C-alpha cells in the first residue's frame, strides 16, 4: 500500500510542475501522471477501480464546498445566468446527444438519455482552476462559465436520483439496480421514498439547528485539528448515511453544504476541507488518466476521435449560440465556448452508477469513459490555444490618447493611477492642485472614468505625451507606476529633458531605491516601508511595550534605515562589501536601540523618584525629528 502511495505521489510531483510550467494547468498534469503510471504505459499500477471509489470522495467534498458557496445573495445575483444560461445549456446539450444516440446510433432510449445527461456536464475542476490561473474568472466569460458550472453541479443531484428510475424501466434489471449496501431495499417502494425524504429533512434540520452548537463546542477547545476532524467526520457520516439508503452521497453533502452556507463557521469549514478536496481530486484525475483504455483507443481510433470531436463540436455549438443569445460580448463568446466544451469529472461518477445499474453495457461504459477522458485532456489545450493565439485580439489594441486630447497642467503630472497613485491624487486634489494623470492600463482607466476621474491613456515614457500633459510648466512629476524599470525609464528621460522639474517616485524595493538615488531625483517612497514600519510599531505595542517607547523605536529605526540607505548607495552593486556593511549596520541598530532603551529606563526611573513632570522631560530630551523624504 505504501509503495502505491509513493508511486502516485511521485508521479504527481514530477508531472504537475512540468505541466504548469508548460502552461497546461495542474489538472492536465494529474491526467498525464495517471497515463504514465497506468497499466497501458509503464504499468506501475494495476486496476484503478478500488482507488477510483476512494478518489471519488474528492468529488463528494467538492460538492460540499460548492454547497457552502451557495449563499442566497450570490445565487440571486447570478440567477439569470444560472437558471437561464445554465439551464438551457444542460437541456439543449442533453437533448442533442439523446437524439444522436437514439435516432442515429440506435441505442435504447434509457442509454441515450443517460449518455446525453452525463455528456452535457463540463469539468468544474478543469474550468475553474484554469480560468483562475489565467485570471479570466472575473471576466464576463469567466463569470458566465462559473454560472453554467454551478447549475451543472446542482443538476448532478437530480440526475443521480433519475438514473435508478431509468434502471427500473428495464425489465429484469430491478434487482441489479439496487445496491447491495442498501439497507432499505427490502421495504416497499413508498416506505423507501418516505425514509429517503425523512433522511434528507433530518440532514437539513441537523445542519441548521444542531451543527452550529456542536461546532461552537469544538471551537472552544481551541484545537484546530479537532475542528478539522469534526468537519471531515460530518462529511463522511452524511455520505455513508446517504449510501446506506440507496441515495447519492454527493446529494447529502451538497445539501449539508447549502444548509451551512449561512453558518458563522462556513469559512473555517472551507479552509479545513479544501486541502483534502484538492488532494483527493488530484488522486481522482490520476486514476482517470490511468484508466484510459489505450488498447481500445488503438483498436477504435477513428471512432473514438470522431466521438471526441463530435462531443466538443456539439457542446461548442450550443454554448456559442447561447452566448450570442444572452448577449455576451463578442470578445468573450469564444472564451466562454472553449472553456466549457469538454466532458466533466461527474461523468465518471455517473458512469460508475450507470454501469452498476446496467443502463450502459461494459463496452459502452469503456468507450464513453475514453471519450470523456480525452476531451478533458484536450480542454486545457483549447484554453492554451485561446490564450496564445486567439486572445491576441482580445488584448488592448487601443491607441494612446492623442497629445492634443490630453489636458495639460501647471501643477502636477501623475504617471500611474493605481492604488498607490490614487491616494496621492486624492490628497493633492483635495488641496486644490490641478492634476494631469496618465495611465497605461485600459481596464483601469475605464474603471476610473466610470467614477468620474479624468485619466488619460498614455505611456509617460513617451516624450510627446509627457509634453502634452504640460511638463514644460508643471511643478512636479509623480511616478507612481508599479513597474520598476518603467519608473527608471521615465525618471531618466525627465531628468534629461526637463532638469527643472521636481520628481517624486514610487520605489518598489530597496534596490530600486538605490537606483533612483543614483539618478538624483528629489524624493521617493518605498511602497511598503511606511506601512510595514507602522505595523511594526503596533506589534511592539501589542507585545506589551509602552506606546511612546514603541513609537520612538520606530522613529529611530526610520532614521537609521534612511541614513543607511544613503550611505550604502555606492556599495549595493558590490555584493561582498554590501553584505558586510549591512551586517555591521544591523548590529549598530541593535546597539542604538538598546542604548536608547537603557537611557529611557533610567529617565523613567529618575522621573518616578523625583516626580519630574512630562513637560520638563520633553524640554530636556526633545525628540529628534525624523527625515521621511526617503
Radius of gyration: 32 Å
| Poorly predicted regions | 171-180, 393-397, 612-630
Residue share in helix: 55-70%
Q: Hey, roughly how much beta strand do the residues contain?
A: under 5%
Structural class: mainly alpha
What is the makeup of the main sheet? 6 strands, parallel
Adjacency order of strands in the biggest sheet:
3-2-1-4-5-6
Shape: globular
Instruction: Report the total helices.
Output: 27
| Mean of all residue-level pLDDT scores | 80
Distance, first to last CA = 60 Å
How many runs of DSSP E, i.e. beta strands? 6
Structural commentary:
The chain contains 27 helices and 6 strands. The protein has helices spanning 2-21, 26-37, 49-69, 72-77, 79-104, 109-119, 124-133, 140-168, 174-177, 189-220, 224-244, 249-259, 266-290, 294-299, 301-325, 330-340, 345-356, 362-388, 419-430, 442-450, 463-468, 484-497, 510-519, 529-542, 547-567, 575-610, 614-620; strands at residues 412-415, 435-439, 456-457, 476-479, 502-507, 523-526. Strands 3-2-1-4-5-6 form a 6-stranded parallel beta sheet, sandwiched between helices. The two termini are 60 Å apart. The model is unreliable at 171-180, 393-397 and 612-630 (pLDDT under 50).
Amino acid at each position: 500500500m505504501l509503495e502505491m502511495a509513493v508511486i502516485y505521489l511521485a508521479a504527481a510531483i514530477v508531472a504537475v510542475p512540468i505541466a504548469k510550467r508548460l502552461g497546461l494547468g495542474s489538472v492536465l498534469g494529474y491526467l498525464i501522471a495517471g497515463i504514465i503510471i497506468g497499466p497501458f504505459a509503464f504499468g506501475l499500477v494495476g486496476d484503478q477501480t478500488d482507488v477510483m471509489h476512494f478518489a471519488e470522495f474528492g468529488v463528494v467534498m467538492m460538492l460540499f464546498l460548492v454547497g457552502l458557496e451557495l449563499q442566497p445573495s450570490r445565487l440571486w445575483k447570478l440567477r439569470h445566468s444560472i437558471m437561464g444560461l445554465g439551464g438551457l445549456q444542460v437541456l439543449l446539450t442533453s437533448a442533442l446527444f439523446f437524439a444522436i444516440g437514439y435516432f442515429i446510433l440506435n441505442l435504447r432510449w434509457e442509454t441515450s438519455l443517460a449518455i446525453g445527461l452525463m455528456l452535457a456536464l463540463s469539468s468544474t475542476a478543469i474550468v475553474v482552476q484554469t480560468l483562475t490561473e489565467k485570471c479570466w474568472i472575473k471576466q464576463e466569460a469567466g463569470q458566465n462559465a462559473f454560472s453554467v458550472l454551478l447549475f451543472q453541479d446542482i443538476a448532478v443531484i437530480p440526475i443521480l436520483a433519475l438514473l435508478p428510475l431509468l434502471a427500473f424501466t428495464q425489465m429484469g434489471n430491478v434487482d441489479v439496480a439496487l445496491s447491495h449496501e442498501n439497507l432499505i431495499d427490502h421495504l416497499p417502494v413508498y416506505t423507501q421514498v418516505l425514509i429517503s425524504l425523512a433522511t434528507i429533512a433530518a440532514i437539513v434540520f441537523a445542519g441548521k439547528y444542531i451543527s452550529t452548537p456542536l461546532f461552537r463546542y469544538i471551537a472552544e477547545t481551541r484545537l484546530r485539528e479537532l475542528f478539522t476532524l469534526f468537519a471531515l467526520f460530518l462529511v463522511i457520516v452524511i455520505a455513508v448515511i446517504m449510501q446506506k439508503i440507496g441515495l447519492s452521497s454527493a446529494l447529502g453533502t451538497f445539501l449539508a453544504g447549502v444548509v451551512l452556507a449561512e453558518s458563522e463557521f462556513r469559512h473555517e469549514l472551507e479552509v479545513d476541507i479544501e486541502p483534502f478536496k484538492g488532494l483527493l481530486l488530484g488522486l481522482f484525475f490520476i486514476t482517470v488518466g490511468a484508466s484510459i483504455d489505450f488498447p481500445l483507443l488503438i483498436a477504435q481510433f477513428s471512432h473514438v476521435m470522431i466521438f471526441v470531436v463530435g462531443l466538443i463540436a456539439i457542446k461548442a455549438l450550443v454554448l456559442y449560440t447561447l452566448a450570442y443569445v444572452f448577449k455576451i460580448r463578442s470578445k468573450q463568446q469564444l472564451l466562454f465556448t472553449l472553456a466549457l466544451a469538454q466532458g466533466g469529472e461527474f461523468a465518471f461518477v455517473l458512469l460508475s452508477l450507470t454501469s452498476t445499474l446496467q443502463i450502459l453495457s461494459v463496452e459502452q461504459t469503456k468507450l464513453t469513459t475514453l471519450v470523456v477522458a480525452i476531451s478533458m485532456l484536450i480542454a486545457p489545450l483549447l484554453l492554451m490555444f485561446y490564450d496564445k493565439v486567439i486572445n491576441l485580439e482580445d488584448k488592448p489594441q487601443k491607441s494612446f490618447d492623442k497629445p492634443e486630447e490630453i489636458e495639460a497642467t501647471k501643477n502636477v503630472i501623475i504617471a500611474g493611477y493605481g492604488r498607490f497613485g490614487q491616494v496621492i491624487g486624492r490628497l493633492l486634489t483635495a488641496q486644490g492642485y490641478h492634476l494631469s494623470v496618465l495611465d497605461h492600463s485600459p481596464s483601469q482607466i475605464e474603471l476610473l472614468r466610470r467614477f468620474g476621474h479624468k485619466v488619460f491613456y498614455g505611456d509617460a515614457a513617451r516624450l510627446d505625451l509627457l509634453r502634452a500633459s504640460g511638463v514644460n510648466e508643471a511643478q512636479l512629476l509623480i511616478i507612481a507606476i508599479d513597474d520598476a524599470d518603467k519608473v527608471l525609464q521615465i525618471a531618466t528621460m525627465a531628468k534629461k529633458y526637463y532638469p527643472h522639474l521636481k520628481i517624486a517616485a514610487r520605489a518598489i524595493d530597496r534596490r530600486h531605491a538605490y537606483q533612483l538615488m543614483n539618478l538624483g531625483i528629489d524624493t521617493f517612497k518605498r511602497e511598503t516601508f511606511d506601512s510595514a514600519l507602522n505595523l511594526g510599531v503596533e506589534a511592539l505595542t501589542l507585545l506589551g511595550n509602552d506606546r511612546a517607547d514603541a513609537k520612538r523605536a520606530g522613529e529611530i529605526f526610520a532614521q537609521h534605515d534612511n541614513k543607511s540607505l544613503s550611505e550604502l548607495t555606492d556599495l549595493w552593486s558590490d555584493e561582498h562589501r554590501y553584505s558586510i556593511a549591512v551586517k555591521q549596520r544591523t548590529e549598530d541598530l541593535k546597539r542604538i536601540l538598546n542604548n536608547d532603551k537603557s537611557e529611557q529606563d533610567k529617565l523613567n526611573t529618575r522621573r518616578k523618584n523625583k516626580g519630574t513632570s512630562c513637560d520638563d522631560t520633553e524640554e530636556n530630551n526633545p525628540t529628534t525629528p525624523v527625515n521621511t523624504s526617503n
